[in-house]
Structures are given as C-alpha cells and as structure tokens.
Amino acid sequence: MSGRMSGRLTGIGVGPGPAGYLPLAAIAALRSADLIYIPRARGADLSVALQCLDGVEFDRSRLCEIEFNMDPDRQVLQEHYAQLGQQLAAQLRQGLQVVYLTIGDALTYSTYGYVLAAVRDLYPGCDCVTFPGITSYAAAAAALEWPLGVGKERTLILPCPDDAASLRAEIESHDIVVLMKVGARLPWVLALLREMGIAQHCGFARRIGLEGEVLASDLTALDAADASGYLAVLLIRKTAQAQRHRAPQESSKGTA
Predict the structure, then answer these.
(1) 183 in the Ramachandran plot: left (φ > 0), alpha (ψ -120 to 50) or beta?
(2) In this predicted model, which residue has the larger pLDDT, 244 or 95?
(3) Of 45, 77, 111, 130, which has the fewest CB atoms closer than 10 Å, so is most exposed?
(4) Among candidate residues 39, 34, 16, 8, the one with its CA nearest the CA of residue 101
(5) Are 107 and 130 in contact (CB under 8 A)?
(6) So what's the pLDDT on residue 256?
(7) Domains in the chain and their CATH numbers?
(8) Integer CA distances (angstroms), 254 to 246, 247, 248, in order
(9) Which residues, 6 or more positions from 128, have their beta carbon under 8 angstroms from its beta carbon?
C-alpha cells in the first residue's frame, strides 16, 4: 500500500464499448492506485465495468468489488451511499490512492456523482479528481454513425419519462432527443416513434462492444422483446438528417 500522506479519490468512466475506450491519464491513475472500487449490479455475475477494461494491464489484486444497490427506496439508497462514503473517506485519510470505476462518463447520469458528494461531505479537504469519459450516447452515436447534432439543431438528453404524452412533447419541442434509462418502457417508446412516423430516423444501441450487443439505425422493425435490457440508449431524430452535400432538387427551382 502507498505511504503517501495525502490520499486521492479518482473517478474514472470506462467504456461503454470495445476495450480501449479509456483516456491515457485514466490508465496511469488506474495503474498507480492502491484500491480500485469496481461496482457490480445486484444479480449480475460479472461487473460490466471490468469487462470494459479487458486487455488493459493493471494490478487486479487491488480490485475491490462492491455490489451496487439500485433500490427505489430513497432511505435505503441514502444509507448505502453514506456507508460507502464513510469507507472511502477513511481510506483517503490514510493516504491511499483510491480509484472508483463506473460505466460511461463518470459525471453523466452516473452513481459516482452520489459517491463523490458523500465523500466531500464527510472529508471536505479531500483531494478528488475525475477524468471525463465516453458517454453511452456518444458511444452509440459513433457505433451507428449517427450525428448527435449538426448546425443549430437542439439536442435534449433525457431520462425516459413514464408516459408517452410527456415524451411526445419533448420530441416535438426538440430536434434530437437522447433517451436514457429506457428499460421496460421500450415497447411503448417504439410504438410512439412509429405512431409519429419518425422511427426510421432513430437509432438504438444496447451493450455496445459486449456480449448481447444490439445496434439499429432504423427502428421501424426493431423488436422490443429482443432489444430490452440494461445499458441501452435510444437516439431520436424528429426529421431526416439534412443532406447538405447534395445540390437542391431541380424540381424545387422556381417554386413559391
């Protein structure tokens, strides 16, 4: 273990996607860490974050796997983060270099945000650094070659609403909607996109670069039963992407 007087908490987003989606600075921090916290979803056999680090060389004996609690009860969640924050704060006071891994970007709809807040509350003077990572929607856009915004298009990043009317209103008031945390809502979301006549402009990605990957750049025929699950993101475009490299159609000349 490190003999340094000052500990540091480093937040690192890994993946989502093929091995290698990791900044060089984050790799250096990973290799110099005394402890590496790696979350695993309750009920999962393997940590997805660890799968995203396949091929990256670092000391795996320093891994500290924690079962992640997504209980809907706010009191249970509060106790979970308070306990984890106390554990991390104590280790940082000992001068340890602690890394916390998460999927995607560490501060974009990530549980690391709660962890960081808990640690700073319990240990105000702690040294913390967070490396920006690749968001799920950036990885999805790259995998699908799907522009997230061009020109003056307005893009909204949105956790999926609980009802179709709310989602329809958001789609109608924006050019592009990035829909996260879709989960079991996928069947009615797909039905809404088809009803609005825009499914052919939309993209979907799940488990990018991992076993069970689903990629679709046209959602007209996407089967919700085959695509539903964790680590999914939906890219919604209200109209067809502008083809600015093409000359105007001859038929449009001279029209009012």
Answers:
(1) left
(2) 95
(3) 45
(4) 39
(5) yes
(6) 43
(7) 8-131 (3.40.1010.10), 136-237 (3.30.950.10)
(8) 18, 15, 12
(9) 8, 9, 10, 11, 116, 119, 120
Question: What is the rounded CA–CA span in Å between residue 3 and residue 252?
Answer: 73
Q: How confident is the model at residue 80 (pLDDT cuts 50, 70, 90)?
A: confident
- Order across the sheet with 176-180: list the strands: 155-159, 176-180, 232-237, 203-206, 214-216
CA atoms within 13 A on the CB side of 99: 25
**Quick one: tokens of 183?**
């989960």
Tokens representing residue 26 in the block: 């984050």
Strands, sheet with 8-14, edge to edge from the N-terminal-most edge strand: 63-68, 35-41, 97-103, 8-14, 127-131
Model pLDDT, residue 254: 47
The pLDDT of residue 243 is 61
Lowest mean pLDDT among 71-75, 136-140, 207-211: 71-75
Element (DSSP H or E) covering residue 142: helix 136-144
Q: How far apart are CA 216 and CA 182, in angstroms?
A: 15
Q: Which of 30, 25, 67 is nearest to 52 (CA)?
A: 30
pLDDT at 31 over 90: yes
Three-state secondary structure string covering 174-228: CCEEEEECCHHHHHHHHHHHHHCCCHHHCEEEECCCCCCCEEECCCCCCCHHHHC
DSSP 26-71: HHHHHHH-SEEEEEEETT-SS-HHHHTTTT----GGGEEEEEEP--
